[in-house]
Amino acid sequence: MNYGVDFYRLSSDGYNVYPVESVSIKVPYDLIIGFYHDAESEDGISEKEYDAILQKYIDAGEADLNWFEIVKE
Asked: What sign results for the dihedral spanned by CA atoms 51, 53, 59, 65?
Protein backbone atom coordinates (compact mmCIF):
# COMPACT_ATOMS: atom_id res chain seq x y z
CA MET A 1 0.00 0.00 0.00
CA ASN A 2 1.29 3.44 -0.89
CA TYR A 3 -0.10 6.82 0.08
CA GLY A 4 1.21 10.11 -1.19
CA VAL A 5 0.53 13.81 -0.95
CA ASP A 6 1.60 16.21 -3.69
CA PHE A 7 1.79 19.99 -3.35
CA TYR A 8 1.52 22.33 -6.32
CA ARG A 9 1.86 26.04 -6.96
CA LEU A 10 -0.62 27.84 -9.18
CA SER A 11 1.02 30.01 -11.83
CA SER A 12 0.44 33.75 -11.84
CA ASP A 13 -1.80 33.40 -14.91
CA GLY A 14 -4.09 31.10 -12.88
CA TYR A 15 -4.16 28.36 -15.51
CA ASN A 16 -1.13 26.20 -14.84
CA VAL A 17 0.16 24.33 -11.82
CA TYR A 18 3.72 23.37 -11.02
CA PRO A 19 4.82 20.63 -8.62
CA VAL A 20 6.49 21.95 -5.49
CA GLU A 21 6.99 19.00 -3.17
CA SER A 22 5.66 15.56 -2.36
CA VAL A 23 5.77 13.07 0.48
CA SER A 24 4.66 9.47 0.63
CA ILE A 25 4.18 6.54 2.94
CA LYS A 26 4.90 3.02 1.75
CA VAL A 27 3.68 -0.07 3.58
CA PRO A 28 5.12 -3.23 2.01
CA TYR A 29 4.00 -6.76 2.78
CA ASP A 30 6.22 -6.91 5.87
CA LEU A 31 4.16 -3.97 7.27
CA ILE A 32 7.24 -1.88 8.08
CA ILE A 33 6.10 1.66 7.31
CA GLY A 34 8.51 3.83 5.31
CA PHE A 35 8.30 7.60 4.91
CA TYR A 36 9.67 9.28 1.79
CA HIS A 37 10.15 12.85 0.64
CA ASP A 38 9.35 11.86 -2.93
CA ALA A 39 7.18 9.01 -4.16
CA GLU A 40 9.98 7.87 -6.50
CA SER A 41 12.71 8.10 -3.86
CA GLU A 42 14.33 5.11 -2.24
CA ASP A 43 15.87 7.30 0.47
CA GLY A 44 13.60 7.32 3.48
CA ILE A 45 12.95 10.14 5.92
CA SER A 46 11.78 9.97 9.52
CA GLU A 47 8.15 10.22 10.50
CA LYS A 48 9.02 13.51 12.22
CA GLU A 49 10.45 14.92 8.95
CA TYR A 50 7.37 13.69 7.08
CA ASP A 51 5.06 15.41 9.59
CA ALA A 52 7.10 18.65 9.42
CA ILE A 53 6.76 18.82 5.63
CA LEU A 54 2.99 18.32 5.85
CA GLN A 55 2.69 20.84 8.68
CA LYS A 56 4.40 23.66 6.77
CA TYR A 57 1.67 23.47 4.13
CA ILE A 58 -1.10 23.15 6.71
CA ASP A 59 0.29 26.21 8.52
CA ALA A 60 0.18 28.26 5.31
CA GLY A 61 -3.61 28.05 5.41
CA GLU A 62 -6.06 30.06 3.36
CA ALA A 63 -4.68 33.40 4.51
CA ASP A 64 -1.62 32.99 2.29
CA LEU A 65 -3.64 32.19 -0.83
CA ASN A 66 -4.65 34.92 -3.25
CA TRP A 67 -8.28 34.01 -3.86
CA PHE A 68 -10.37 35.59 -6.57
CA GLU A 69 -13.97 34.98 -7.43
CA ILE A 70 -14.82 33.13 -10.61
CA VAL A 71 -17.83 34.79 -12.17
CA LYS A 72 -19.90 33.91 -15.18
CA GLU A 73 -19.43 36.43 -17.96
From this structure: negative
Reduced to 3 states, what is the DSSP secondary structure of residue 63?
A: helix
pLDDT, one tens digit per residue, over 28-63 is: 888 888 898 876 667 889 999 999 988 888 877 654
Question: Mind giving me the DSSP string for 44-62?
Answer: EE-HHHHHHHHHHHHHHTG
Q: Please answer whether residues 38 and 49 qualify as being in contact, where contact means their C-beta atoms are separated by less than 8 angstroms.
A: no
Q: What sign has the CA pseudo-torsion 61, 63, 66, 72?
A: positive
> What's the CA gap between 65 and 10, in Å, rounded?
10
The model carries a pTM of 0.65
